[in-house]
Amino acid sequence: MGDLPMPADRAGGDVTAGSGAVVVAHELTRVYGEGETAVHALRGVTLAVEPGKLTAVMGRSGSGKSTLMHLLAALDEPTQGHVTIAGTRLGGLSDNAVTRLRREHIGFIFQFFNLLPMLTAEENIVLPLTLAGAKPQHEFFDELLSKVGLQDRLKHRPSELSGGQQQRVAIARALMMQPHVMLFDEVTSALDPELVGEVLVVIRNLAREGMTMLIVTHEMQFAREVGDRVIFMDEGKIVEQGKPSDVLDNPKEERTRQFLRRTLQLDHALDELTIEEGG
Ligand SMILES: Nc1ncnc2c1ncn2[C@@H]1O[C@H](COP(=O)(O)OP(=O)(O)O)[C@@H](O)[C@H]1O
Ligand SMILES: [Mg+2]
User: Fold this and answer.
1) pLDDT tens for residues 59-97?
2) How far is 108 from 10, CA to CA, in rounded Å?
3) Which of 35, 121, 167, 192 is most buried, with most CB under 10 Å away?
4) For position 19, what pLDDT does the model report?
5) How far is the CA of 11 from the centre of ligand 2 (A)?
């Protein structure tokens, strides 16, 4: 699909038409609040979530990553610009129509697992289907469980599961609806370090199967090894994107370099940081 997204001023018209992408962001702007206290969380972001690829989104805290994910998942509405899901332009659609599009196409996994505490792992996983009045097919369900490795934890409640297991339940729950695109927002950030790997392995295996994914992560090594593309955001904009090896090893933009320097050297350079820089 080449170098999507192109800057709108060069592209003329619908930059992402014909790309085959299920989810496309067109010049998204999102402003929270009004007047002097308004926060410009996104400032004109255009991107197509490339089919069958894993795209890693990186950038410092507050750069607009979560806002972008929420807009792509139709959980929030842009101030300007629009999102298309499966070729349908959001905005002006009924809530029901948006819910249907989201349910049919998009799986969203958050930093915190949002499992229902009174339900078992199994009940949490099948809940979306249960709510839709359907039952899982045995074969599909077994295959799903083998992907997330929860066979012996099905009868446990979330409080009886580790953070890594809970996050895998959340991933299974999203996969239950057979989405075309999976969006992950810092899904390992709340986990103890030794539990991060088991979640990343599940995501890597999905990537190998050709699942289309957009993942906000700070895991450099993962982005490098599993990612097809890295997008680096700052101050509500995409400032750099490309192959992981190019963006992470040979960044063109000073802001990307600065971010990578801080992230990679934090362990060694804590003495030299001020509180302002540390954020
Ligand atoms: N609901 C909200 N109301 C007001 N400001 C918000 C809201 N959500 C996010 N922001 C602000 O928008 C900016 C981008 O936030 P966010 O998208 O969460 O960034 P990231 O995920 O990269 O850390 C930040 O300045 C944040 O404080
Ligand atoms: Mg965030």
Assistant:
1) 999 999 999 999 999 999 999 999 999 889 998 899 999
2) 32
3) 167
4) 61
5) 29
